[in-house]
Amino acid sequence: MKIKNPPIHLGLIPDGNRRCAKRLLKQPWKGHEWGISKIKTVFEWCRELGIKTITFYALSLENMDKRPKRELDFLFNLARKETRDILENNENFVHKYKIRVRFIGRLKRLPGDLQENMKKIEKMTKDYKNYIINFAIAYGGRQEMVDACRTIAFNVAKGRLKPSAITESVIKHNLYTNGGTDPDLIIRTGGEKRLSNFLLFQSAYSEFAFIDSFWPNLKKKEFVSAIKDFSCRERRFGK
Hints:
Helix content is 44%, strand content 15%. By secondary structure, it is of the alpha/beta class. The protein has a single domain, classed as Undecaprenyl pyrophosphate synthetase (3-Layer(aba) Sandwich), CATH 3.40.1180.
């Protein structure tokens, strides 16, 4: 299936994992297991529609500070399982479709072994050129801008950069996304209608779509409808 003018870069806020599990009388964090398996399904939909770059909001800094330790441990174990599979299984969809994988956020907040797995995956996939998937984990948009400002201030203090040379482009290249393309469309599932600190700088001219279905229950028809709606919009970029 092809759609004329699909988004080149799609941002996804996969909300509703916990609420989906609660409705089925499961432990709230059980929904994260279903949510991770959904990522591969949604990638397949994106591939069919011609979408080349995806950024998933995997775990916010706020959730790291607020969620129970048992839930975070469950999430980290799921991440360990998935990252090990990428590293050890040549049949993993990442290798099958030549997907460059990047992890963005305050990654030092994560367990050390998980950080190592992520570094190895980024190195392993750095030359893949068919698709890009960014996982925003231990991520916050405001914190991203703070960290970028600190890096720029450090370079100014060291004499490597003049204050007059600080431009929008300089800031963009000091974000976690490191000058990558901005998202054309951001989709949030779960019925909420807010950004929740996701890609605040990069989303200045993004289009938005909000879907009521919880992330694990997202239907292909709903997803394709959101992409079709985007393809019909006239984007003005502030003009």
